[in-house]
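Q: A reviewer asked whether we had any structural model of the full assembly, not just the individual parts. We don't, so I'm hoping you can provide one. Inputs are below.
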Amino acid sequence: MIQLWPFHGGIEPKSYKTLSNQVAIKKAGIPQFLTLPLLQHIGEPTKPVVNIADKVLKGQIIAHCENEDCSLSLSAPIHASSSGTIVAIESHAVPHPSGLNAPCIVIATDGNDEWIERFPLPNYTDIEPDIVRNYIAQAGIVGLGGAGFPSHVKLVHNNIDTLIINGAECEPYITCDDRIMQEHPADVIVGAQILLHVLGGAKNCIIAVENNKPQAYKTLSNLAQGNIAVVQVPTLYPMGGERQLIYTLTGKEVGRGKLPASIGIVVHNVETTRAIYRAIYQGRPLISRAVTVTGTGLETPQNFEILLGTPMEFILKQCNPKSNLKRLIMGGPMMGFSLPNNKMPIVKTTNCLILSDKEEVKPLQMPCIRCGACAQACPINLLPQQLYWYAKAKDLKKIQEYHLFDCIDCGCCAYVCPSHIPLISYYRYAKAEIRANEQESKKSESAKHRHEFRTFRLERIKAEKKARLQKLKSKSNASKESAIKAALERVKAKKQAIIIQHLIDNSSDSHLQ
Amino acid sequence: MTIAILSIIVLGGLALLFGLLLGYASVRFKVEGNPVVDQIDAILPQQQCGKCSYPGCRPYAHAIANEEADINQCPPGGEMVILALADLLDREAKPLDMELKPTNEVRLAVIDEAICIGCTLCIQACPVDAILGAAKQMHTVIAQECTGCELCVKPCPVDCIAMIAIPLTIHNWKWAYPSPPTLQNPMEPLL
Ligand code: SF4
Ligand code: SF4
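A: Here is a predicted structure for the entire assembly that you could use as a starting point for your response.
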């Protein structure tokens, strides 16, 4: 039993996990069309490498990173999730809080689900960690816990001594990680071994499971051996937050603005770990993921393995939706967002869909009474009421002094606020505004330089013109004078010649006379 | 008597010493340029649009620093810039000059390349060299560098430059300010 370190704050919302945690993961099937957005992760969007009317096979790369080299970029390629024909590369509704469209590749499936040739690496232990890491990047694997950070970026081996596999799954409703740990414990454990190899000999691996998932804990513990330990952690939201989990397990704090790697720790999600196992042992890139489809609006909530790009409609139909549906949420109830319709595709970051038959109740918002409940609940130990105050006043300088960018958007503060202030909305606004301002000031800086250079250039051209004119003038003056002189001389010479001629003529005349 | 002479010598010596020190410091630590102008210039949006009636942001900054111009003449900067300038210069914040139209959104110049005759007039008008082209060649705007100042629109003899709104995508979209409390959702109880 290892020592645990409780983190500050946190909340215990009602979990609703029993809605879906008893049902095994089911394959959702192949829809008629797959819509794959070019950006399904945090970072740079990918570029299409196929054309309309191309035939593609399952697992074929259809959109790649810049220069087709992902090992160095914050990006991950997109693969065809089933075989078929590319029918469109166009803007399409995507699951994003803005509700805007974004470029997607649309595949009309042929139903054969025919694989491209696969090259697994079961002898990965004989291969350089960097090559295995690159292989994982090519497989398009990103963090499947919801954030979607390209996994290979978190697999650089510089003095990492502890690998943590995050099986906390602390948000209400979500149960897909729980099911994966119960149904595929061996995949997770072998995946962890692969990660240890890629991390260049990290010493320990801890698989952390919240104590509301006893079955998952048991199955994993039975299989774990060697330097892999399975640890139960208390059920407390947001236990699955990277920093909270690290603190709970090790008592170490990650410095402000730093990555866990700076203290020798790397955290990967359970399903990501399984995806890496599947990539290495089966040559299977990330073309599907487990999704919890749940909520009070469905008769039969369950967990699915869904091909990426599958329309949500196709999935929801299989869960017997009730008739009076009110809201569709992607992600958990704490950190997810509402979607305007069910036509959007499942993407790499879709870990949960919640369909509710209840209207979103916006309770009466009251003024802040400075009760301090939010500060007690904040797992980062921030002062949410202060942040709210400055965000509301649009004081973007002051709010950063209160460490706005340490806030992990967990929503604990808003959950406990007795005045029902939508605190997160204020923080999101402030963060977005500050980032936009930074972009803008970069642009205006460049405009300033360009303007200064232009002014300088115009001055220079003017000066050059003037100089040239001067030179031309002086030159032409000189030449004019000499021309006049020459002409005068010529005239003089002519005159003289005439006089001489006269003299000669006269003298000869006189001779004749 | 000696005390009086002594104190005159001591004080005079001190005065001389400090005078020399100050004189030296003013040469040694001389600040290049005008720091107030730089600070003002840093606040201005650098569109170089000239709507303030000065030929660019820096000349306007100079004019403000010399108290020749008011702080409310920058339409692209709008309220934010006026507030920042008022704060910096300790002057009264006031609404934008009535004669100037506020520009709410930054737009982008686009040349209709089918109509362009390659006259280079717009190139000469662009304050940030964001238009590419040569005589009798089609011109084009480098979208990244365009500040949306609109100065190229008027000089075009064939009217082929349009200012378009920058399209909203998932990359430049941002979370809005939480909607103000309404009657159904009041912030303060209506008394
Ligand atoms: S959302 Fe931010 S401020 Fe609120 S509790 Fe979470 S970390 Fe703290
Ligand atoms: S919990 Fe709400 S009311 Fe209490 S201090 Fe925080 S913001 Fe104010």
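A: Points you may want to mention in the reply: Chain A touches chain B at residues 39, 94, 96-98, 100, 102, 362, 364-367, 394, 422, 425-426, 428-429, 431-433, 435-436, 440, 443-448, 450-455, 457 (CB under 8 Å). The mean pLDDT of chain A is 90.
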